[in-house]
Amino acid sequence: MRPNRLREIWASGGAAVNGWLAIPNGFSAETMAHQGWDTLTIDMQHGVVDYQAMVSMLQAISTTATVPVVRVPWLEPGVIMKTLDAGAYGVICPMVNTREDAQKLVAYTHYAPRGTRSFGPVRALLYGGADYPAHANDTIVTFAMIETAQALDNLDAIMGVEGLDAVYIGPSDLSLSLGCRPVFDGLDPKAQQAVDHILERAKAHGIMAGIHNGAPESALARIAAGFQFVTVSSDARLMAAGAQQLLQAMRAGAPASGPAPASDSY
After folding, report:
1. Omega before 113 cis (within 30°)?
2. Interatomic CA distance for residues 45 and 94, integer angstroms
């Protein structure tokens, strides 16, 4: 079976830099994958990516060594299993709030006897190889999102579930749940304390911790703190930022004479 480079990065003590895909398009996913991200996560929870778009995006990522990860819409067995059958090598599941939630997630992402995943790895065989069924349980990476006050209360119970590989912090939802501003970086003190606590407990349980970031400086600081999976921005945000920077540069270099461009167009 094709190795999971994410597991290899972790085994070497490194941290994976993850890109985020919100645009439902194979070409944009392929373009992102060719930039050298360690992993790329297709976001099916928020935004406009549906299942068919996800499949084309997984196929596009497959043209590179980048590891394909999917954030599924919810803790629902059907979509999780279909996502794995399509060739995802990692699953990030939102709103895992209890030990029972974590147990269900592990069950849905593992074949028997470790879980209840139904057999039918249609595209996963093409991506992973003919021996995929024998090694999938040890290759796929399962992330539980920790993003509520309830999850914080049940943190050790969640992290103690056998077969859970990692937790992933959604800073905005976690902040909202704690009565703080919903931001990625520069968290309010209460939310930052929660993030520090999650990281500390993940280390104690021997599982990996990931987190979403807005800026590379925040991601680097969090790697230094011990996070081993950091997301930076998203394809849509990067495209908008790049376009804005280009337009600002062009406007700044426009000749002094002649009509000034309109504020909302060039």
Report:
1. yes
2. 8
Residue the block writes with tokens 């790895």: 121
For CA atoms 178, 180, 234, 207, give the dihedral sign: negative
Which are the catalytic amino acids? 46
The terminus-to-terminus CA distance of the chain in angstroms comes to: 51
- Is the pTM here over 0.85, yes or no? yes
Task: Report how far residue 159's alpha carbon sits from residue 205's, in angstroms, rounded to the nearest whole number.
Answer: 7
Residue with tokens 């067995």: 77
- Token pair, residue 37, equals 């991200």
DSSP string, 7-59: HHHHHTT--EEEEEE-S--HHHHHHHHTTT-SEEEEE-SSSS--HHHHHHHHH
**CA proximity to 163, closest of 99, 118, 211, 85:** 99
**pLDDT in tens for each of the 266 residues of the chain?**
999 999 999 999 999 999 999 999 999 999 999 999 999 999 999 989 999 999 999 999 999 999 999 999 999 999 999 999 999 999 999 999 999 999 999 999 999 999 999 999 999 999 999 999 999 999 999 999 999 999 999 999 999 999 999 999 999 999 999 999 999 999 999 999 999 999 999 999 999 999 999 999 999 999 999 999 999 999 999 999 999 999 999 999 865 544 444 444 33
